[in-house]
């Protein structure tokens, strides 16, 4: 696992977006995995700028998103499909048929998980962007004794519901379930870049950097089992 210690969120966005820009230049039909949350917004802004200036094109890129809440309509800004459209997809030349965001429809969720994993296996993922929750969750793989090799429906922890309630009017509006790529699905990516910014992520970054061990109650630590992970953070110093 490689750590890059940045000065501020702007530098995290700059370094991470450059990795994606270089990867797209290198392979214009690259398969990406993308994340939601406030952390990647600035990085997506830089990808949009790069696309608008003609430096890179997304026309042959394929994307998979990590996760989505169950039970939030697609028109709602808290739906991760709406988030991706607002923050990236609607501003770049990525064709509609090239992006995939997990369903938020509870009646389709189970079947979706199976089909999504098959598609990931068939197509492969070259480069995956991750954020991290304050409790160390990646995508929506929460701290637990057992983890999933495949895309799954999971229960969100009280802690995540509380932290993510900042995006909702009331905490009661936060969904309790989500569809998420499993730890195993994420591990299928050839290369992983994880970004974490700000003091709220400092305890998780500190633990990851100092403890260097794999603990299922701290899901991000499972990335130590992957051969090509880069963590870019301004939350702690070396
Ligand atoms: C959500 C997402 C995660 C994301 C996390 C951190 O829970 N499922 O994929 O990493 O939020 O979000 P933020 O970047 O807003 O701190």
This entry's quaternary arrangement is: single chain
Number of strands: 10
Name the average pLDDT. 97
- Spell the H/E element sequence: EHEHEEHEHEEHEHEHE
Q: Runs with pLDDT <50, length 5+?
A: none
Q: What can be said about the biggest beta sheet?
A: 7 strands, parallel
From the N-terminal CA to the C-terminal CA, the straight-line distance is: 14 Å
Strand content: 15-25%
Number of helices: 7
Bound molecules: 2-amino-2-deoxy-6-O-phosphono-alpha-D-glucopyranose
The rough form would be described as globular
Q: Reading side by side through the largest sheet, how are the strands ordered? A: 1-10-9-6-2-3-5
Going by helix content, strand content and strand pairing, the class is alpha/beta
Helix % is 25-40%
Q: What is the radius of gyration?
A: 17 Å
Written description of the protein model:
This protein is an alpha/beta fold and 238 residues long. The chain has helices at 9-26, 41-52, 80-87, 109-123, 158-164, 183-187, 202-211; strands at residues 2-5, 31-34, 62-65, 67-69, 99-100, 127-130, 152-155, 177-180, 191-196, 229-233. The strands form 2 sheets. The protein has a 7-stranded parallel sheet with strand order 1-10-9-6-2-3-5, covered by helices on one side. Helix 1 crosses helix 2. It binds 2-amino-2-deoxy-6-O-phosphono-alpha-D-glucopyranose. Residues 35-39, 66-67, 131-133, 139-140, 160, 164 line the site of 2-amino-2-deoxy-6-O-phosphono-alpha-D-glucopyranose.
């Amino acid at each position: 696992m490689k750590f890059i210690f940045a000065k501020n969120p702007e530098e995290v966005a700059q370094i991470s977006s450059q990795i994606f820009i270089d990867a797209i230049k290198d392979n214009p039909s690259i398969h990406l995995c993308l994340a939601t949350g406030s952390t990647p917004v600035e990085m997506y802004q830089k990808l949009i700028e790069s696309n608008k200036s003609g430096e890179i094109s997304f026309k042959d890129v394929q994307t998979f998103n990590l996760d989505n809440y169950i039970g939030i309509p697609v028109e709602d800004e808290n739906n991760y499909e709406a988030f991706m459209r607002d923050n990236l997809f609607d501003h770049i030349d990525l064709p509609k048929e090239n992006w995939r965001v997990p369903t938020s429809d509870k009646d389709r969720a189970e079947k979706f998980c199976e089909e999504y994993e098959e598609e990931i296996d068939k197509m492969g993922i070259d480069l995956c962007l991750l954020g991290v929750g304050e409790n160390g969750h990646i995508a929506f793989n929460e701290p637990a004794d057992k983890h999933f090799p495949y895309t799954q429906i999971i229960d969100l922890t009280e802690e995540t519901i509380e932290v993510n309630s900042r995006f909702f009017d009331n905490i009661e509006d936060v969904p309790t379930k989500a569809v998420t790529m499993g730890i195993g699905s994420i591990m299928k990516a050839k290369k992983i870049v994880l970004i974490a910014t700000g003091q709220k992520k400092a305890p998780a970054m500190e633990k990851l950097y100092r403890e260097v061990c794999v603990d299922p109650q701290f899901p991000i630590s499972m990335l130590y089992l992957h051969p090509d992970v880069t963590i870019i953070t301004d939350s702690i110093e070396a």
